[in-house]
Amino acid sequence: MSTRRKFIASTAAGLAGLAVPSYGLAATSSPVTAVGQPLVISTWDTGLAANLGAWKVLRPGGRALDAVEAGVMVTEASQNCCVGLGGNPDRDGIVTLDACIMDEKFNCGSVAALERIKHPISVARRVMERTPHVMLVGEGAQQFAVAQGFPLEPQQLSADAAKAYKEWLKTSQYKPVINVENTGSKKPVGPVGGANNHDTIAMLAQDAQGNLSGSCTTSGMGFKMRGRLGDSPLIGSGLFVDNAVGAAAATGQGEDVIRIAGAHTVVELMRQGLAPKAACKAAIERIAKIKGAQARDIQVCFIAISAKGEHGAYALQKGFSYAVCDAKNQQQLVQSDFLLA
Ligand code: ASP
Question: What pTM was estimated for this model as a whole?
Answer without folding.
Answer: 0.87
